[in-house]
Amino acid sequence: MAMTAAAAGNAPMMDINTTPLIDVMLVLLIMFIITIPLNTHAVKLDLPSGGGPVAATASNQIDIDVLGNVYWNQQIVDRTALQDRLRASIASSSEPLLRLRPDALARYQIVDEVMATVQRAGVTRIAFVGNEAYVR
């Protein structure tokens, strides 16, 4: 049989304590992982240098003032004339960008009606101008 408890009391300990060895190995492993240089995956691109002229894009602007008046490129228009001008701008070869700039105090109902008119006309390129004034 194996060693009995009585005989083991006087005999030296036969097992090696591996806990400090494992601790040292883990610390060395962590230090080794930290010191390994990271490989960065980079794609070399030859980007063109800026400096070419920026092409001016055609745009129309709709302004809405506090009183609810609607302006097409600084000319006051009614709803039917607005819809006619929207359809005419869409009929051109390249649809121009439509910029909508309501006044901060304009009624939401008027802005909503103008946006509905724009949508019914089939405009797909629209930008809201002046939203940065509302950021706080």
Automatic annotation (TrEMBL):
UniProt-listed InterPro entries: ExbD
Primary residence: membrane
Gene3D superfamilies (alphabetical): 3.30.420.270
A GO cellular component entry from the record: plasma membrane
Record's keyword annotation contains Cell inner membrane: yes
Single biological process term from Gene Ontology: protein transport
Bilayer topology annotation: Single-pass type II membrane protein
Superkingdom of source: Bacteria
Gene Ontology terms, MF aspect: transmembrane transporter activity
Alphabetic keyword roster: Cell inner membrane, Cell membrane, Membrane, Protein transport, Transmembrane, Transmembrane helix, Transport
Localization of this protein: Cell inner membrane; Cell membrane
Transmembrane segments: 20-38
Record function comment: Involved in the TonB-dependent energy-dependent transport of various receptor-bound substrates.
Family, similarity comment: Belongs to the ExbD/TolR family.
Subunit structure: The accessory proteins ExbB and ExbD seem to form a complex with TonB.
Descriptive protein name: Biopolymer transporter ExbD
Species per Swiss-Prot/TrEMBL record: Glacieibacterium frigidum
